[in-house]
Amino acid sequence: MKELHLDFGHFKLYQDHILGTIKEGVHFDLELNSILGDNLKEHYGTNNPVAYISNRVNHYSIDPMVHKFNTSYHCLKAIAVVDRPDQILSTTDIESKFFKPQRLKGFKNIEEALNWCRNFLNYSYF
């Protein structure tokens, strides 16, 4: 596992998945997504299938066009979103409409998200 510390978040890079935590108050837009994407391509290359787990423990906003743009990353196979326990209204359903069909899903904890990602990567056709 490699850790990646950027100005806007902390990311743990595992063999087949990324666990990302965006910092409090950040607006995660296409520019920040590009910075993260460049770092991930450097680490994983462009042929290794990976899943991204968004650990939303902080309050921040995300431009849904990030997901639309991320459909062009062919190695990014799935996105799991773990919402904060106090999150009353999840935006995951809305966000999922901008990513690949049935490949962005919300979860209550990291363990469930990780299991879904691993099953998705192991049994999905790329």
Spell out the key features of this protein.
single chain; 126 residues; alpha/beta; Transcription Regulator spoIIAA; six-stranded mixed β-sheet; two-stranded parallel sheet; 8 strands; 32% helix
Written overview of the protein:
- With 126 residues, the chain is α/β, with parallel strands linked by helices.
- The protein has one domain: Transcription Regulator spoIIAA, CATH 3.30.750.
- Helix content is 32%, strand content 29%.
- It contains 4 helices and 8 strands.
- It has helices at 30-44, 65-70, 92-96, 110-123; strands at 2-6, 9-13, 17-22, 27-28, 50-55, 61-62, 76-82, 104-107.
- A 6-stranded mixed β-sheet has the order 1-2-3-5-7-8, with helices on both faces.
- It is globular, with a radius of gyration of 13 Å.
- The two termini are 24 Å apart.
The biggest sheet amounts to: 6 strands, mixed
Number of domains: 1
CATH superfamily: STAS domain
Helix vs. strand class: alpha/beta
What ranges have pLDDT less than 50 throughout 5 or more consecutive residues? none
At the fold tier of CATH, the topology name is: Transcription Regulator spoIIAA
Portion in beta strands: 25-35%
Strands of the widest sheet, in order across it, are: 1-2-3-5-7-8
Mean pLDDT level: 90
- Inertia-based shape: globular
**What value does the Rg take, in angstroms?**
13 Å
Count up the helices. 4
Distance between the termini: 24 Å
Helix content: 25-40%
The helix/strand order is EEEEHEEHEHEH
Query: What is the CATH architecture term?
Result: 2-Layer Sandwich
State the name of the first-level CATH class.
Alpha Beta
Strand elements, count: 8
